[in-house]
Each structure stands twice: as structure tokens, then as C-alpha cells.
Amino acid sequence: MGISAVTLLPLYIVLFLAATALCVYQDASAQARKGRAVYFSAGSFEVSTPVAWAVGCLCLWVFFMPLYITCRGKAG
Q1: Nearest one of 27, 42, 41, 33 to 72, comparing CA atoms
Q2: Which pairs with CB-CB distance under 8 Å and at least 24 residues apart come from 50-55?
Q3: What is the CB neighbour count within 10 angstroms for residue 9?
Q4: In sequence order, what are the residues at sequence separation of 6 or more whose Cβ sits closer than 8 angstroms to the Cβ of residue 76?
Q5: Taking the C-alpha atoms of 67, 73, 75 and 76 in order, what is their torsion angle to the nearest 10 degrees?
Q6: Radius of gyration over alpha carbons of the chain, in Å?
Q7: What is the pLDDT along the chain (76 residues), one digit of tens a residue?
Q8: What Å distances lie between residue 20 and 24, 32, 35, CA to CA?
């Protein structure tokens, strides 16, 4: 019979999140090497390292991905 697409949906979501987090990490690292770090700060909350951006995208993609894209536009 095989595995249905509905059964594989959680796997697809995890793979998508991991792939986008890896892309964000690689891009943030490249920007940091160029001296244009992608940075966000609100009060005591600060995201400024490639690892922080990647972990944020992995855990709270809905919030961090648009935030990264916005901050990335300002940095580069």
C-alpha cells in the first residue's frame, strides 16, 4: 500500500524548517564575514549571531523568518 502523504506531512514540515534554518545560518554567516551582521534588538531581546537566527527560525519560524528577511534588507 505505501505511506500516505498525510502521514509524511510532519516529516516534510520538519525538513522545510531545517532547510530554511540552514539557509538563514549560511546567509547570516556570510553577512557577518562581510562586516554587515544581521541584527535585531527590542528592549533586552537581541538577535545578532547566525546561530541565534538559525535557532529562532527552527523554533519560531513564523516570527523569525519574516524578521530575518526584514533585518537582512536593512543590513545589506
Answers
A1: 27
A2: 50/24, 50/25, 50/26, 51/25, 53/24, 53/25, 53/28, 54/21, 54/22, 54/24, 54/25, 54/28, 55/21
A3: 10
A4: 31, 36
A5: 150
A6: 15
A7: 678 888 899 999 999 999 999 999 999 999 999 999 999 999 999 999 999 999 999 999 999 999 999 999 887 6
A8: 6, 18, 22
